[in-house]
Amino acid sequence: MDAVETALRGALLPLDAPPGARGWNHDDIATFLGNTPRRAAAVLIGIRDDRQQNVLLTVRTDTLQQHAGQVAFPGGRVEPSDKDVIATALRESHEEIGLEADAVTPLGFLESFETISGFCVTPVVARVDAAAKLKPDPGEVAEVFEVPLAFFLDPANMRRYTMEYRGHRRDMVEFLHTGYRIWGATAAIVQNLVRRMGHP
């Protein structure tokens, strides 16, 4: 096991101890949403099981009601039929990008993250078979692309900025990679993973 793999596994909450329903950024989001219940959701942070260790990301279609055109991890809201958040992440990944569940090995969780749109998102980190074939659903996903995990671990690739939202200033991060802008909740989740892996 190399240093990156060791750091990755050490950064995660174990599979038998999923995070609670309160996100690590709850106080920030409460400024806008108060303490109203958040809707449960899950995303898959899929990392190719090969030398490059590419992270799977999607570009949402321009016709969606929420997050149209944005870069996102595959995922979505928890449905009553889902056994747990891992089942949600796997189901949504299959629906959105055609990723078969038997090509995915869940490793652990990151802390939940709350969004301005009222969701509490549980990130499920997993290894994805290097040979897994992907077929995006054009109704939800315009394209799938991959970013080397090493790119996110290099602090030179993280840009910090401040934005105004509903009269409040918010500290944000983003990553720019080969023409893709990774920002918002996706960038914040990546930043948390990077931080937990011991990078600034």
CATH architecture: Alpha-Beta Complex
What name goes with the CATH superfamily?
Answer: Nucleoside Triphosphate Pyrophosphohydrolase
Helical content class: 10-25%
What structural class do you assign from the helix and strand content? alpha+beta
> And the CATH topology?
Nucleoside Triphosphate Pyrophosphohydrolase
CATH class: Alpha Beta
Number of DSSP-assigned strands: 11
Order of helices and strands: HHEEEEHEEEEHEEEH
Low-pLDDT stretches are: none
Span between termini = 23 Å
Mean pLDDT: 93
General form: globular
Annotation field: number of helices: 5
Our Rg estimate from Cα atoms comes to 16 Å
Strand content: 25-35%
Largest sheet: 5 strands, mixed
Number of domains: 1
Short descriptors:
alpha+beta; Nucleoside Triphosphate Pyrophosphohydrolase; single chain; about 200 residues; globular; 11 strands; CoAse; 3-stranded antiparallel β-sheet
Description:
The chain is an alpha+beta fold. It has one domain: Alpha-Beta Complex (Nucleoside Triphosphate Pyrophosphohydrolase). Helix content is 24%, strand content 34%. Strands 1, 4, 5, 6 and 7 form a five-stranded mixed β-sheet that branches. A hairpin with a 2-residue loop joins strand 10 (168-177) and strand 11. The radius of gyration is 16 Å and the shape is globular. The two termini are 23 Å apart.
At a glance:
With 200 residues, the chain is of the alpha+beta class. The protein is built from five helices and eleven strands, in the order H-H-E-E-E-E-H-E-E-E-E-H-E-E-E-H.
Please render the helix and strand layout as text.
Layout (H helix, E strand, L loop, with lengths): L2 H9 L14 H8 L5 E10 L5 E7 L10 E2 L2 E3 L7 H13 L6 E6 L3 E2 L4 E10 L12 E8 H5 L5 E7 L2 E10 L2 E3 L1 H13 L4
Parallel strand pairs: 1-7
Antiparallel strand pairs: 1-4, 2-3, 2-8, 5-7, 6-7, 9-10, 10-11
